[in-house]
Amino acid sequence: MSENCNQNCNTYSHDRDFSSFSAKPHELSNIKKVVGVVSGKGGVGKSLVTSMLAVTMNRRGYKTAILDADITGPSIPKAFGVKGKAVGNELGLFPMKSKTGIDIMSINLLLDNDTDPVVWRGPIIANTVKQFWTDVIWSDVDFLFIDMPPGTGDVPLTVFQSIAVDGIVIVTSPQELVSMIVSKAVKMAEMMNIPIIGLIENMSYFKCTDCNKEYKIFGESHIEEIAEKHNIDVLAKLPIDPKVSAACDKGKIEFFDGNWLDNIAKYLVMENGGKKMKIAVASENGMVAEHFGHCEGFYIFDVEGNQIVSSKSIPNPGHKPGFLPNFLNDMGVNVIISGGMGGGAIDIFNEKGIEVITGAAGNAQVAAEEYLRGNLKSTASVCHEHQHHSECGH
Ligand SMILES: Nc1ncnc2c1ncn2[C@@H]1O[C@H](COP(=O)(O)OP(=O)(O)OP(=O)(O)O)[C@@H](O)[C@H]1O
């Protein structure tokens, strides 16, 4: 890790230097950035945030992976619906792939029975995590997210000593204890000289779907004051969302709908120097089309380093159920922007790991540029057949 960095620099751009860590990654691994997700105490949604971060970056076209270091409470495979046993050969152990291509390694993918409890002592747990780093072949990973063991005790400390983590995200919930818990996590990061990317407050509020009112179920948040005290950023506030917990329970976290992690995604993209991606905009006379399925054509914008470097316009090849999302996926599109879109098309895009932005309007290129600046948020609006006479691309 760079000598120039201290915990206050709030950046995690480091040259990969593994010399000061006790464990080296597998020689066939190629990992660009390692982001640890920590919590001062259990049950605040650390695993959920880890999963959503990996999904969010995967949707942006990055190769992402999750190392489930929460050995005694491994919940990542279940959230992704990944079952079975990870395989290995004489070279090493291979992670298992989620439906949208996220690499996952977890103790639950090695146990005979995933309901077997892991009743190991701290050093064995820490050693297992170390092996997930040294013995697993993580090939061509842009972002490896580590779901850290909960708390700030011996096990996470040993893991941090072993693995070259580029930065950590601290997950909290809005409770009285938070100030103390965050302080502990910050101190741990300081001791290890690991940059803190920022704070994520989970279960921040609950939004009533009938009246749209927000209720602070766990009380008022003090996250801003806490963040200011430690000179770190609040990157996201996640609501309590029954759809999210249902998605976890059904193994479908990859298909969550929500843009709560856009800020942190933007930050990670910038820190990675931007990247190549393709944005498609459903268009009508150069403007964002109101209805995806029956749009005139698509602008395809090639992006490098967060800038549009080229664009082309292609006619709509025809509207058949399910056809267009697959067509755009085959073109390597990572993001689709439209006015409205049918639920069926949104589901297929989500399954393919393509980010969907609906509710956009105005000039097509400006919409793509606004997306890149982080200013274009999806309204998540779904067209229904009766509203648009089946024109939204079901
Ligand atoms: N914002 C949320 N909305 C709805 N459900 C949530 C939310 N956050 C977490 N949950 C649910 O709460 C449970 C605990 O979350 P999770 O496993 O992510 O916590 P954790 O901090 O990793 O726990 P531990 O530290 O014990 O491993 C899960 O069932 C998850 O689906």
UniProtKB/TrEMBL annotation:
One Gene Ontology term from the biological process aspect of the record: iron-sulfur cluster assembly
Record flagged with keyword Thylakoid: no
Coiled coil spans: none
Pfam families for the chain: Nitro_FeMo-Co (PF02579), ParA (PF10609)
Domain Dinitrogenase iron-molybdenum cofactor biosynthesis: 285-372
UniProt keyword list: ATP-binding, Hydrolase, Iron, Iron-sulfur, Metal-binding, Nucleotide-binding
Function per UniProt: Binds and transfers iron-sulfur (Fe-S) clusters to target apoproteins. Can hydrolyze ATP.
Family membership: Belongs to the Mrp/NBP35 ATP-binding proteins family.
Protein name: Iron-sulfur cluster carrier protein
Originating organism: Clostridium formicaceticum
